[in-house]
User: What shape does this take?
Amino acid sequence: MDYDLIVVGAGPGGSTAARFAAENGARVLLLEKREKIGYPVRCGEGIAPKWLEFSNIPIDNYWISKKVKGAKIFSPNGSCLVVEDDNLGTEVGLVIDRVKFDQTVADLAVEAGAECRVGVFVKSLIIENNTVKGVEVTSNGVEEKISCNLVIGADGFESQVGRWAGLNTLTKPSDSCGALQYYLTNLNIDPNYCEFYLSKGSKGAYIWSFPKSKTESNVGIGCLMSRVHNPGEIRDLLDDFISNHPDFSKGTSINEMGGGVSLSPPLDKTIRQGVMLVGDAARHIDSITGGGIANACIAGMVAGKVAADSIKSKDYSEEFLEKYEKGWRELMEDRLYHSYVAKTKLSQVSPEMIDTVVATMNRVGVAEPTVQSILSVLDEYHPDILREVGEMI
Ligand SMILES: Cc1cc2nc3c(=O)[nH]c(=O)nc-3n(C[C@H](O)[C@H](O)[C@H](O)COP(=O)(O)OP(=O)(O)OC[C@H]3O[C@@H](n4cnc5c(N)ncnc54)[C@H](O)[C@@H]3O)c2cc1C
Assistant: This one.
């Protein structure tokens, strides 16, 4: 075998998996189709540091653009709930430079002993007698077969590895979000708070601002694909929001990017003989926020360690890889599932109802907007809404 393990995709999930597998003795090849890791950026770049520490990624000023104090959550009528840093979820606390971050995480993998090749497109899995034997790649127009015993698919939202492995990776339109983001400059904003606008406009979109400095911010929109007919509608909604915003309307967009985000629950199954899926490829994304960097790193850490164990035991069976399936589910499944249910309910309630709940949370002083705390507020102050929303957890 050329390698013990091939990791497809050098995003945060793949690089973390490669790192932990290499640290634990595996011969690892990390393959990335892009010429430059992390570029172009398709991300709001918000993250909470505690989850990075959990997956042993040292916090480094090199890739931090801005430390924020918290978030401002705006209900449809414009009321604002301020949430301080300690009480935030997985996506706020730091606004990062994704190119530098992704490259740093890939560097950690290389320092641990993984080999990394960029500009290499993985085009299929080699499977013989139901056993994974390697991957077929194209690089600079040259085709190549590389053998290995294990493959980790960390190839993002549009993952092919899962499909090639025969796993069900389909996402419903009502669980897919179309996203568009502008990098606005020339602003004069408070850079200490991220901002989130709930259920904005006729399509109930979600809008964010992740400030990089007083003058720059990632301002973007996510909208359920089941609610729009074409991507142009998403652009119109964002343009309309920005042109009516007192601060953002003064900015200039110098970069834009679009992409898909899965707001589905995690895949029912993320393994098969010789294959594990990590991060967006496994739908390890928070359905409420669309955030997935930290979850990809956590899943990558678990997958990398299980890969190393599997290699030491020379056991690449699905039964052995169950350790990964169980491992990431223990760490994240409840949280991801609660967010999914909350997202589904949130997309059904009226803007007026969201206004009422945010106003009450402000009045009674709920600092941490978890699903549980929102339910408690509803239970105590709005049992009628709770009945309407139904059982969330
Ligand atoms: C508009 C937008 C805003 C977002 N904002 C945030 C945010 O603020 N905070 C947050 O936490 N998350 C955010 N996310 C989600 C976040 O970007 C992802 O959850 C995260 O990047 C997942 O990491 P990953 O390693 O699983 O996949 P990715 O980062 O997508 O990495 C996958 C890698 O695989 C490579 N690849 C794919 N196919 C192949 C192939 N066949 N061969 C070789 N290489 C391949 C890709 O080039 C890519 O580098 C956002 C997403 C979008 C679209």
